[in-house]
Amino acid sequence: MKELVRLFVQIALMRKGPQDLPASAALLAATAAAFFIINCLVSAALPPIPGHWLGQLVVEAIFTFVWYALLLKILHRPERFLQTTTAVFGYQAVLAPLWISAVWLVRQFADDDTWRLPISMLGLAIVVWTVAANARVLKAALEWGTPACVALVILQYLAGQILLLYLFSGML
What we know:
mainly alpha
């Protein structure tokens, strides 16, 4: 277990990739569950932010499965689904505490002239890091260039945000 966590940290640090993971449905399920649990724990530990974060998290997890299943099928690489999706959930589980904390801080200090810029820059750095880590995972899975993989990651993020907005806009 400890070695697996180290491997996900290495993927988040862009030193390893999905090819270093076993192709295992059980590992994918366990990693997705860990991603979900870590997000729930960190979100529950911080004072509440308006919105239905639990429902959004469920949609985000399902969307991630569907996105990579369709993407890899359309691009004729379905055999890479298990490792790619496991890597994505794994590095996201590692980065979730940073990401959730940054989002929370940005919202908390949105009206504070002293802290708004430094905290926003921290949030931006985490977004860039997340995009880079995900693009590296895609690059290994698709054998495409970095710019195309970055574009796919940004497209995934935008599509996910549009879906969340559509599903939860009446609840915000």
